[in-house]
Amino acid sequence: MKEIAEFLAAIVGLCWVGLAGYIVYRFGPGIDRILTSVQKGKFFGQEFELGEQLDNLERQAEEAAETSAESSPADCQLTALPEGAIDNLESTASDGIAGILETAIDNPKIALLMLANLIEEELREIFFSTAIVSRAKRFSWSSAISELTQRHLLTPATGAALQMFTAVRNSMVHKIADVHDNEVSRVIDSGLKILTTLRAIPRGRYFVHQANLTVYGDPECREPYFGITGVMIESRSGGERTVVGVYPTTLDHFVAGKQVAWEWKGGTIHSRAYFVDPETDERREAWTESLEFVGRNFEET
Fold it and tell me: Dihedrals φ, ψ of 234, to 5°?
């Protein structure tokens, strides 16, 4: 009986080999097309050359880093940034990167999502920390990249690198279920270069220092203005805080210590006003002429 079982097992093995040979002979060209489609990332009508995208992303990230290094802060047209408001980012240049690299060891796809969030935070801060005189704007990658590039706060190479990073990330997250970890790692490498490039871009970081200050129309601070208050704004850089000014506002959402967007309401120009400094009790000029400051809390942008 043992010999018969072994004989039958051998016959079954030969049948499997023969079946495999027939499939290759009969469907070989079709299998070749399937493998080619897999290599090109073609599934259910979605076709994109993933390898080419990764190559392009690496080139764009390199070019963005190079052009950023060639540009000095003076080349960036920072609109209405008070003196001393440009950040020294050296102390925070590695924020979040260590966590991304650690996560990438076991789960590169999660690390990629973490990196995308950090890049968005930097892009959002640059976008909302430059003077915006208009209605409140909603943030999106495409609109931020377009506007910041037009205003020369992003180099064309950096804008292109961000657009490519977004396209590749979306392809990986939403369209390909079996992306290899080494491909994700390539995107992370390029994304880290983009993140470093963004962090090197000067911008102000603005926080509420004091809110709801009573403002007056006379230097003696006896005739209060009605309908408006003053909000004292500070900039923060490398652990240092600098008060940049007191500005008129009709809004009441300001809270001391909260980061705010650098947003202004066009139209009415408020004339000279004074206030009593709550820290020194000195009577001081608040502003000579000013638009209304309407900066939203940063988490609401």
Answer: -120, 155
Q: What is the pLDDT of residue 170?
A: 85
What are 75-103's pLDDT values in tens digits? 433 333 344 333 433 444 456 888 999 98
Contact 287, 248 (CB under 8 A): yes
* Residue 190's pLDDT band (cuts 50, 70, 90): very high
Starting at the edge strand found earlier in the chain, the sheet holding 215-216 runs 215-216, 273-276, 283-287
User: How far apart (Å, rounded) are the C-alpha atoms in residues 101 and 41?
Assistant: 26
What tens digit of pLDDT does each residue of 254-265 get?
Answer: 999 999 999 999
What whole-number distance in Å separates Cα of residue 255 and Cα of residue 262? 15
- Give the global pTM: 0.69
- Chain-centre distance for alpha carbon 59: 20
3-state SS of the chain is CHHHHHHHHHHHHHHHHHHHHHHHHHHHHHHHHHHHHHHHCCECCECCCHHHHHHHHHHHHHHHHHHHHHCCHHHCCCCCCCCCCCCCCHHHCCCCHHHHHHHHHHCHHHHHHHHHHHHHHHHHHHHHCCCEECCCCCCCHHHHHHHHHHCCCCCHHHHHHHHHHHHHHHHHHHHCCCCCHHHHHHHHHHHHHHHHHHHCCCCCCEEEEEEEECEECCCCCCCECCCCEEEEEEEEECCEEEEEEEEEECCCCCCCCCEECCEEEEEEEECCEEEECCCCCCEEEEECCEEEECCCEHHHC
pLDDT digits (tens, 9 = 90+) for 142-176: 888 998 999 888 999 999 999 999 989 888 876 65
